[in-house]
Design a protein that fits this description.
Helix 4 crosses helix 8. This protein is 39% helix and 18% strand. The chain is an alpha/beta fold. It has 2 domains: 97 residues, Rossmann fold (3-Layer(aba) Sandwich); 100 residues, Rossmann fold (3-Layer(aba) Sandwich).
């Protein structure tokens, strides 16, 4: 029996990102296709992030030609590098959905970018109680065990939940084990993005293996 093709989801990803499409495809159920548009990005600097923000609307316009049901700008850094830029950050919505108020940050970022993320989250009403980064650019080559370790290192008693930030950082395979071991929800940039895309497209199916956000 051939599955019905029901939904088309759009992603705008930085040109060096090879993780977001892989993880989102793994979270997509039968009948959902994912279509991408790329924008130039080869370094993690404030100038590069802001250039992506300026470029994203044109990429979204081209992606809309595919008649996708919803579009996600798949660069977490571009969403928070300028505090107050985007009050509708998807990560924040997912954290609120899980009733997380105090958050521990885990990422592959350098310290300055983690600081920007912490500032953004504080500006958005969250309390950042811990942060850890790996100081790695283009972290797609890192296996998921790195996400497990940095999230575990960032965890502390005061944290209601863990945010693993960066769409180019593999973590999908370790989310459920982290939640089991730490006893608290874990949200990643890719799970939050897919969760919101499915909401916007009115997709009701559950996603296995992606943590409490999808239960």
């Amino acid at each position: 029996m051939i599955a019905e093709w029901k939904y088309q989801l759009g992603l705008i990803v930085p040109s060096w990102n090879t993780v977001m499409e892989y993880e989102c495809w793994r979270m997509a159920s039968q009948g959902i296709s994912i279509h991408t548009s790329r924008i130039p990005h080869t370094e993690d600097s404030e100038e590069a992030f802001l250039h992506m923000v300026d470029t994203a609307p044109a990429a979204a316009e081209v992606l809309a030609h595919a008649k996708v049901n919803a579009i996600c700008f798949g660069c977490t850094g571009g969403s928070f590098v300028k505090a107050g830029y985007d009050q509708e950050i998807i990560d924040g919505k997912a954290l609120r959905y899980l009733k997380i108020e105090s958050v521990a940050i885990a990422s592959p970022y350098p310290e300055w970018l983690n600081d920007r993320l912490a500032t953004f989250l504080e500006h958005s009403g969250f309390t950042v109680v811990s942060q850890r980064g790996l100081n790695v650019e283009c972290p797609a080559f890192l296996p998921p065990e790195n996400a497990y370790k940095v999230a575990s290192d960032s965890n502390c008693e005061e944290a209601d939940g863990i945010l693993i930030s960066c769409t180019n950082f593999r973590s999908l395979e370790v989310i459920e084990q982290l939640e089991k071991d730490l006893g608290k929800p874990v949200v990643t940039s890719n799970t939050a993005s897919m969760w919101k895309l499915l909401q916007l497209a009115a997709v009701k199916e559950k996603v296995a293996g992606a943590g409490r956000l999808f239960t």
